[in-house]
Amino acid sequence: MCTVVPISLTVGANRIVPTIAIPHPLGNPALEAKDEFELRYHLVEKALKALETEVDGQTVFDK
Fold first, then answer.
1. Residues 47, 29: contact at Cβ < 8 Å?
2. How far apart are CA 9 and CA 39, in angstroms?
3. Neighbour-count burial of 19, counting CB atoms closer than 10 A to its CB (0-12 exposed, 13-18 middle, 19+ buried)
4. Which residues constitute the domain of residue 23?
5. pLDDT tens-digit map of 5-41
6. Alpha-carbon torsion, ordered 36, 38, 39, 44, to 10 deg
7. Could you give the number of structural domains in the chain?
8. N or C: which end of the chain has fewer CB within 10 A?
9. In DSSP terms, which residues pair with 24 in a beta bridge?
């Protein structure tokens, strides 16, 4: 999980899940608590699916 995909690509990460923003990678403080929870839940769910997915080389799991 990262906020700056090009850096992850440069260092050779195999599975890259883009997140929200550098100061708040897994959240958005402008959202209501329930909406932010859903956002975080979705991001973590996507990261877990990325770990389950067989990849050949670098793969970005887009939003």
1. no
2. 24
3. buried
4. 5-60
5. 999 999 999 999 999 999 999 999 999 999 999 999 9
6. 120
7. 1
8. C
9. none
